[in-house]
Amino acid sequence: MTLANNKKQFTNIKNLVERCDVVVEVLDARDPASCRNLEFEELVVKQGKKLVLLLNKVDLVPFETACGWQKLLNAVHPTVIYNCVGAALSSKGHGEGVLIGHGPLFHLIRNLT
What we know:
The protein is an alpha/beta fold.
């Protein structure tokens, strides 16, 4: 179902986005492409808001896969690899630009506002 199919839902989401400075879209790291809502992303961008994509459940995929998705999605919007226990993942080593945990997420949001 698209946002436009449900006018009340679309209006509620549009009003909510209007009140935000930054919008975080949470994507399942196991299949981020199928979790994205391009219509929602377009709405956010058209309203001049910043959009951050957050890859969640990264502990369920190989770390290299999560990094690959981050690199691909970063071409469109800032993308964060998120793990509530970031220390466990960060100890595996990661490339430049990979953000893990709530600290870097909050830092990114502060920089966008």
